[in-house]
Design a protein that fits this description.
By secondary structure, the protein is mainly alpha-helical. It is built from 1 helix and no strands. Helix content is 52%, strand content 0%. It is rod-shaped and about 55 Å long. It starts with 14 loop residues before the first helix and ends in an 11-residue tail after the last helix.
Length: 52
């Protein structure tokens, strides 16, 4: 990656690296959302979030 190979001011992220970071972030957020929905709706307990 451009940032890890020297001074970041001299070699900023290029489009492909930015897209990869954005894509990984989006996938991670989607996974967290699915797991939260699973925890909230699983079982016979009150459907309140478990992270409060």
């Amino acid at each position: 990656m451009g940032v890890l190979s020297g001074n970041p001011k001299d070699q900023p992220l290029h489009y492909g690296e930015i897209f990869s970071v954005w894509q990984a972030s989006t996938v991670d957020k989607g996974a967290v959302s699915c797991y939260q929905a699973y925890l909230i709706h699983a079982g016979d307990k009150d459907p309140t979030p478990h992270w409060d």
